[in-house]
Amino acid sequence: MIHKDHPRYKSLKLREKIVDAYKNGILAESGMIAHGRGEAFDYLLGEETTSNSKKAVQAAAAALILAKNPVISVNGNTVALVSNEIVKLADDLNARIEINLFHKTKKRISIIKNVLNDAGAKNILGTDHEAKALIKGLEGPRASSSREGVYIADVVLVPLEDGDRAEALVKLDKLLITIDLNPLSRTAKTATITIVDNIIRAIPNLIQAVHELNNVEDSTLHQIVRDFNNQENLDESLKKISDKHTGRVKP
Ligand code: ATP
Ligand code: MG
Predict the structure, then answer these.
(1) Which of 8, 21, 80, 134 is at 20 to 30 A from 247, Cα to Cα?
(2) What is the domain range of residue 223?
C-alpha cells in the first residue's frame, strides 16, 4: 500500500491504476510505456494545470460545442484513467464515443466496451457491430474507423493519440483536439488544439468549460476557436518547463 504522506502519492496511485488496467486486459504493454512518457512531462510541468492549458481547454470546449458531429475517440490509457469523466463529457456534448486502439484485439475492445458501459455509456462505436470506413493514409487495422463516428465527424477529441493517425485525421479536414503532456510529440504539433496537461485534469476541466460556455453565442465561440494558435500555445508550454526549472516564472 502507498502511504498518503509519500511525496509522490498521486503519481504512484496513477501508476497503480495503470498496472491494474494492464492486468485487467484494458491496456497493452506499450500503454504502460506511453504512461511513463507522459509522467516524465507531467513532472517537468509541475503536475499542475498551466494557464496555457486552460486557454487550450477553452478553445477545445468552444469547438466541441459548435461541432455538428463531435466524436471522442478513446484508447486503453484514457479508459484506464477517466472512463466516468469521458462518459459525462460525451453526454454533455451529445457526442459519440468510439474505441480506437493502437494494438487492436477483439478481446481488448470488448473489455473496454464493458468498462465504458459500466460507466453509463450507450451506443459505443468502434466495436464489430457497425459499418467501417477506411482512413486514407493509414495501413492495416489502424486505418479502420466507424462510418457513423470518426469517419463523418467534423470535430474529433483524441486524447493520447499516435502521431500517424493524428496526421491522417487532420488531412481529412477534421478539427482535431488532443490531450498530450508532451508538447514536442508529432500529435501535439499536428492537432488543431492541443491541451498540454494530464488527462486526469484535462477532462474534468473540459467538462467545466463546456458547462460554462454552453449558452454563449456561436459567434463568440467561433472567435475563441479562431483566436487560438496551437504553435504559440505549445511554445508557451515549453517555456513554462524551462522557466520553472530556472526559477523565473511561477505557473
Ligand atoms: P507521437 O506519435 O505523437 O510522436 P509518441 O510516439 O511519443 O508520440 P505515443 O505513445 O504515440 O507517443 O502516445 C502517447 C502520448 O501520450 C505521449 O506523448 C505521452 O506524453 C502522452 N501521455 C501519456 N500519458 C498521458 C496522460 N495521462 N495525460 C496526457 N498525456 C499523456
Ligand atoms: Mg507515436
Answers:
(1) 8
(2) 51-244
Asked if the structure places residue 152 within a domain, the reply is yes
Q: Given the CA of residue 81, which atom of ligand 1 is nearest to it? A: 27
CA 43 to centroid of ligand 2, rounded, Å: 20
H-type helices in 173-229, by residue range? 186-190, 199-213, 218-227
Could you list the pLDDT tens digit for every one of the 251 residues in the chain? 778 888 788 889 999 999 999 999 999 999 999 999 999 999 999 999 999 999 999 999 999 999 999 999 999 999 999 999 999 999 999 999 999 998 889 999 999 999 999 999 999 999 978 899 999 999 888 889 999 999 999 999 999 999 999 999 999 999 999 999 999 999 999 999 999 999 999 999 999 999 999 999 999 999 999 999 999 999 999 999 998 888 665 55
237 membership: H or E segment, kind and range: helix 230-246
Q: What residues does 71 pair with on adjacent strands?
A: 96, 156
Ligand 1 pocket, mutate which of 157, 180, 230 (most atoms under 8 A from CB): 180
The CATH number covering residue 191 comes to: 3.40.50.12640
Choose the residue to mutate in 33, 182, 196 for probing ligand 1, maximizing ligand atoms within 8 Å of C-beta: 182
Domains: count for the chain: 1
